[in-house]
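One record is set out below.
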Amino acid sequence: MHQYYKSALVTIAAADGSNCHAGLFRERDGLRYQPGELQVTGIDGAPRQLYAFTNSMSFELKRSSLSDSFKPVPLYSRAWVFQEQALSPRILTYARDRVSWRCQEMIFDERAPLAKSIDDFIREDRATDFIRRGGDPRSTDAAMAQLQEKWIFPRLDTPSPSRSIRNIGYHGPDCYSPGDEFPIAWGDIVAEYTRRKLTYQTDKLAAIQGIADAVAPLVSRTYFAGIWVDSPRSVLMGLVWSSRFRGVESHRVDIAPSWSWASTDCEVLWSGHMLCRLEPKADIAIIKDLTAAGKFTGELVIETNVRLASKGEGHALAITTWSESSVGELKGKVTTVYQASRWPIDNREIVFGMDEDLGENTQLWIAELAAGVNHNLRSRKEVHCLVLLACDGTDTAFRRVGYSVWEEQKWENEELPELKRKKLTIL
């Protein structure tokens, strides 16, 4: 897939097409967007020609209810199109009311100012997760241009651009090491990708594989089941995601291990990438590739500190005490947990993002994953954890069912039962 698009002379995009039969062209008033030509005399007395535009004709028009030109377009909502946009070096786009061109050097548009360097376009139009423009295609195009410039078509004759992925919002340039820059960028890619729609969730990994194939040799990394597994830290940074759970509408996707973001059909957020100077709290022992028959299957083995918890009625959660029978109870079966052994969790202070709906009176394990400072929350120290459920018939194998974020002081509260160091296999 990646070779077709990377090698294409030009990719033509039908941005306003809601399906494969919609075509490229739309009826429009072409004169409405043509500039007025003015003949003037320069200070040297020579005749000059100027072009005048109204404000509503400008490509620089800020997001406004007065314009439909920069509202979301159908093509940009499709997940399969994401890698086609990212891998194409030159794109000619037919939108609702204009034609535009983007390559590795410039962007051209029928609207004023007609042309802009790609670096200026990235700097001025790239939105952050905190300053999203409600589907403005300019923001998407700028994000794609930055992705291409940094990771797909890097320009070897110019210095690498400064780390701009997280410099605005909750990260500064000293918040993470150079080796973390690509995993953070990959998190941005996955977050944007999972906002889009897929007809078949079983295509979730296939529809982004082209980007991974194109990037892997450039960054000298190894890719598996949606994350990068070339080092323990790369694996760790591929695990710190949370899903935007939609209740009964959300389902697990049986194409990847439970620790992979591809195992859920929800939008994915990278909560752990918000941590400044992310500190590993779990030792990543191994990922064993058990892939067969087109399904990515793998065992993740970690050693980390864990706490026992239980889910009661509704969304009620509580930390519970350890007991000799604790491990035996952690098989997804309904168990009885006595009130005296419970420490209720305040969901207003401690974040639990569940990947799936669980029954009542379910025993869970909460496993430490990473810690760091969250500048977006007044530089508070946080501990990020996996929420695990024991697989039936085993005391050592688990699957991920959620993600939890704790303020460090609350996680290490001495009134809670002691932390225990455990070796866990997550399927």
